Amino acid sequence: MIPVAKPILSGEELDEIRAVLESGILAQGETVARFEERFAEYVGTDYGVAVSNGTSGLHTALAALGVGEGDEVITTPFSFIATATSILMQRARPVFCDIDPETYNLDPDGIEDAITEKTKAIIVVHLYGLPCDMNPIMEIAEKRDLLVVEDACQAHGAEYHGRRVGSIGDVGVFSFYPTKNMTTGEGGMITTSDPKVAERARMIRNHGQSERYVHPILGYNYRMTNLAAAIGLSQLKMIDQFNEKRRENARYYDENLNLEAPIVPDSCKHVYHQYTIQVEDRDGFTRHLEKEGVGYGVHYPVPIHKQPLMREYNGQSFPRAEEASRRVVSIPVHPALSDEEREQVLRAVNGYV
Asked: Is residue 293 a contact partner of residue 2, using CB atoms and an 8 Å limit?
């Protein structure tokens, strides 16, 4: 079975890990600090704050920005649930807006109608590695004095009008889960150019400490280990190469698949965390892929507002998100895909079509 995701690890990760093991300092330390600095430089921000995973990054970012009880945060219903649950963790209220059916990202045209006197922030999601349409969103945020969090957990290295995502809003958040474009095993990163937000995020991730055993604010144990950062330092050197291979595989599919390719606006550089297509009979299609030895993913079969957890929102309707959740399928596009495997994926998809 060709997997839908496969991390690439080289000998350099082992060298970095060995150096950490030999140092005897396994928890957060100098290796994490180096990774933070280099990742922030890559994204184009002044600060990076490493955390234990993408979800803790979103939670920490909202807390560092001062989002709290009684606040409302506008976001998309078509994402991994952590986008919304991070808002709930701060006792704030998610407010959903429908998506653009071509990009699957938050539709800027719906944001103004969702704003109330309680609105504090907007969380955009650069879904599948494609940047959200940020200019109109940033204009709305500036006009209405709102904070903007970029959920870039699927979009390492993606660009919008030449700027890397994670550097456009007030805060960016990345995940380094093994299926992502780069990995640390588990881990995440907050990016910002606001020194106060960065300082507060560092405190929150470490039990609210300002100095050893002094805790001015509520915090959590969201630290990244030196072992995870060691992997990240090596992966960061390869991220552009990984992304270019994903884009090469995507171009091959664009040119040869007998169905509509994903839409990529001219303003965006897509890094294809997922290559996502739409089919009418998804169950039949995925059964066919399984018979042909091709792995797949469905991201996401249930929109957030229809999740059992989100009972308050179950009666709401966001038809474009609901239609996408019924039809989307992601096929293998990862950089470890061989030419032969790519041909096998193509034959399987076109054979069904």
From this structure: yes
10-residue stretch averages of pLDDT, the chain, 353 residues long: 93 87 91 98 98 98 98 98 98 98 97 98 98 98 98 98 98 98 97 98 97 96 97 96 98 96 97 97 98 98 98 97 98 97 98 91
Q: How far apart are CA 10 and CA 18, in angstroms?
A: 13
- For residue 165, which of 151, 176, 177, 178 has the smallest C-alpha distance? 151
Of 85, 84, 86, 88, the closest CA to residue 97 belongs to 84
Predicted confidence at residue 353, as pLDDT, reads 83
129-175 residue pLDDT tens: 999 999 999 999 999 999 999 999 999 999 999 999 999 999 999 99
Distance CA 181, CA 156 (A): 6
Phi–psi pair at 339, nearest 5 degrees: -60, -40
Query: What pLDDT was estimated at residue 15?
Result: 87
Question: For the chain, which domains are there?
Answer: 11-233 (3.40.640.10), 239-352 (3.90.1150.10)
Taking the C-alpha atoms of residue 293 and residue 303, their distance in angstroms, rounded to an integer, is 28
What is the rounded distance in angstroms from the CA atom of residue 323 to the CA atom of residue 102?
12
| C-alpha dihedral (318, 323, 324, 325), degrees to nearest 10 | 90
Assigned token pair, 142 = 């500036």
Segments of 144-260 assigned E as strands: 147-151, 159-160, 163-164, 171-175, 188-192
Structure tokens at 140: 């709305």
Q: Model confidence over 68-107: pLDDT tens digits?
A: 999 999 999 999 999 999 999 999 999 999 999 999 999 9
Token duo for residue 283: 């169950």
Parallel, antiparallel or unpaired: strands 188-192 and 147-151 = unpaired
Distance of alpha carbon 132 from alpha carbon 184, whole angstroms: 25
pTM over 0.85: yes
Please count the other Cβ atoms lying within 10 Å of the Cβ belonging to residue 122. 29
DSSP for 35-83? HHHHHHHHHT-SEEEEESSHHHHHHHHHHHTT--TT-EEEE-SSS-THH
